[in-house]
Specification:
- This protein is an alpha/beta fold.
- The chain has a single domain, classed as Metal-dependent hydrolases (TIM Barrel, Alpha-Beta Barrel), CATH 3.20.20.
- Helices cover 39% and strands 17% of the residues.
- An 8-stranded parallel beta sheet has the order 1-2-3-4-5-6-7-8.
- Helix 3 links the parallel strand 3 and strand 4.
């Protein structure tokens, strides 16, 4: 049994969520977290979750969303006040795709952390080329009170250690299967099993052997199989512990 801890059913073009869920279930994927990237599309994200017993939702605004999009704690907590919404995010910092004075991005990140603490639901963190500031803000906002997921992890072992010390899980996407992803592979070897999750981030970052194609939740099996080989563990072990970790984090 596997869990895709981060996917975007609503962004997979020319596909029906019901069909995608069925295809994933055939690969042993039992549960899914359909992650919000903006509030305009949140109703669709939630509707998909409400339609399927094994699909859950999050609410949040991706850091690359323009600074003109402003959100407050009350709006996020009101939207998250639903049993199918189990997380706040994705949120965080992205200094790769967004440049200039990013104080607004940092402030929006803080708003998400405050909302997560208020409603007591874990965070989903997006971090790209911004590890130092991401960790600093998590510390300053006492995000360890709520914890969450460092999604699609691509940073150093030291960053992973600091995040885990604050109660965060490290989630690996299809990137770990890429030939040149040596840093991510090194981290995947070292992360304690009790702190590991797997994901697709579909429709993006399809793992080998589907690299370059549209990703889908069924492909999370390839991520788990690769990590199992990397760590000299059985696939069954990786599947079991990552599933257990997901259910523990979200108290399901």
């Amino acid at each position: 049994m596997l869990v895709d801890s981060h996917c975007h059913f609503d962004l997979i073009k020319n596909s029906n969520p019901d069909t995608l869920v069925a295809a994933a279930e055939n690969q042993g994927v039992s549960h899914f977290l359909n992650v919000s990237v903006d509030l305009d599309n949140f109703p669709t994200v939630l509707e998909i979750a409400k339609r399927k017993n094994n699909v859950f939702a999050s609410v949040g605004i991706h850091p690359n969303t323009p600074e003109t999009v402003i959100v407050d704690v009350e709006t996020l907590t009101n939207l998250a006040d639903d049993s199918k919404v189990i997380a706040i995010g994705e949120t965080g910092l992205d200094y790769f795709r967004t440049e200039g004075n990013l104080a607004w991005q940092q402030e929006r990140f803080r708003t998400h952390i405050q909302a997560a603490k208020k409603i007591k639901k874990p965070l989903i963190i997006h971090c790209r080329d911004a590890a130092e500031d991401t960790l600093r803000i998590l510390r300053e906002e006492n995000a360890s009170d709520i914890g969450g997921i460092m999604h699609c992890f691509v940073d150093s072992w030291e960053t992973a250690q600091e995040a885990m010390e604050m109660g965060f899980y490290i989630s690996f996407s299809g990137i770990v299967t890429f030939k040149n992803a040596k840093t991510v592979q090194s981290v995947a070897k070292q992360v304690p099993l009790e702190r590991m999750l797997v994901e697709t981030d579909s429709p993006y970052l399809a793992p080998v052997p589907h690299r370059g194609k549209t990703n889908q939740p069924a492909y999370v099996r390839h991520v788990a199989e690769f990590i199992a080989d990397l760590r000299d563990e059985s696939f069954e072990t990786i599947a079991r512990v990552t599933t257990d970790n997901f259910f523990r984090l979200f108290r399901l």
